[in-house]
Amino acid sequence: MAFGDDSMPTDNSEQIAQWNGEVGQRWIAMQREIDRIVVPFGDAALKVAAPQPGERVIDIGCGCGDTSFEIARIVGKTGAVLGIDVSAPMLDVARSRTALADRVHLVFREADASEAELPANTDLLFSRFGVMFFSQPTQALSHLRRCLRAGGRCVFVCWRAPRDNTWAMVPLSAARAALGVTPAPADPNMPGPFAFADEQRLRDILSGAGFGAVDLQRFDATLSLGATPRSAAEVAVQIGAASRFVREVGVEHLPVILEAVERALGPFATSDGDVRLKGSTWIVSVTNPG
Q: Is the CB of residue 208 less than 8 Å from the CB of residue 27?
């Protein structure tokens, strides 16, 4: 689907294809860099979720399993963790890590969480940036809620408005300017990283899905894109909004874009050279009224 297209998909097939194709392979190749960038936000969400020993947890959009492993460590062998994702290549990585860690109470499953049959009486649904890609978010979250026990909770972290996330928008703006591209107005409700940015829309989706005790906490942190402007630029054109722009305009423009992004990131380099920008998120906490 083109950026700014007014139509909406009726299923998640486009997202599934992307995460089983080039996008998924890129995230596997850059797993360490990506985990380093998003860890502060995942840790903040886990603090709010507060998984307990013996609890049954589903990690939605678990990817290569980083948060699933941490949750499994906390709930212990008396608990159970299901990591679910649509990306078969990323789950292969997660399963290989499971074998090395001997986590018998941690299972990974390839499925679309918005419609898959899920274990009943789950204590906690958790997600680190994995729930913004549903084509029909209210229906998807309603389906997820039904696997929770009465009083069970759902906690996830999602990006706030693009303007508050300089890590994404500084590289994208530089890339667009380098090619003289003026973006068409985009539908803010399209599935994607910023689909849950609007607070009122997010509250409406959660209420419409039947959740109660809706609580949104803003959590901001600085994140490092790289040790130098050049290395940060190389990361930025591989993940996030700038990488999507590269795919849209064609990789033949990558050298020009890379130079422009490097220049734009220069002012964000710290005294020791680390390139740090702002990330802004919602940490969402809701419960299943039962």
A: no
Least confident of 26-40, 62-76, 102-116, 229-243: 26-40
CA triple 23-29-30, angle to 5 deg: 90
β-strand pairing of 212-226 with 148-159: unpaired
Distance CA 157, CA 197 (A): 11
% helix, strand, coil for the chain, step of 5: 45, 20, 35
* Sign of the dihedral defined by the CA atoms of residues 89, 138, 193, 124, in that order: negative
Q: What's residue 190's pLDDT?
A: 87
Distance of alpha carbon 12 from alpha carbon 190, whole angstroms? 12
3-state secondary structure labels for all residues of 94-111: HHHHHHHHCCCCEEEEEC
User: 175 CB contacts (<8 Å, ≥6 apart)?
Assistant: 237, 242, 245, 246, 257, 260, 261
Q: Return d(Cα 42, Cα 128) in angstroms, integer.
A: 6
Q: Which residue has the tokens 């009224």?
A: 289
50-54, 192-196, 245-249, range with greatest mean pLDDT:
50-54
The string of pLDDT tens digits covering residues 241-278 is: 899 899 899 999 999 999 999 999 999 999 887 999 99
Give the span between the Cα atoms of 131 and 128, in whole angstroms. Answer: 8
- DSSP of 115-164, one letter per residue? TS---SSEEEEEEES-STT-SSHHHHHHHHHTTEEEEEEEEEEEE--GGG
Are 65 and 27 within 8 A, CB to CB? no
| Residue 12 scores a pLDDT above 80 | no
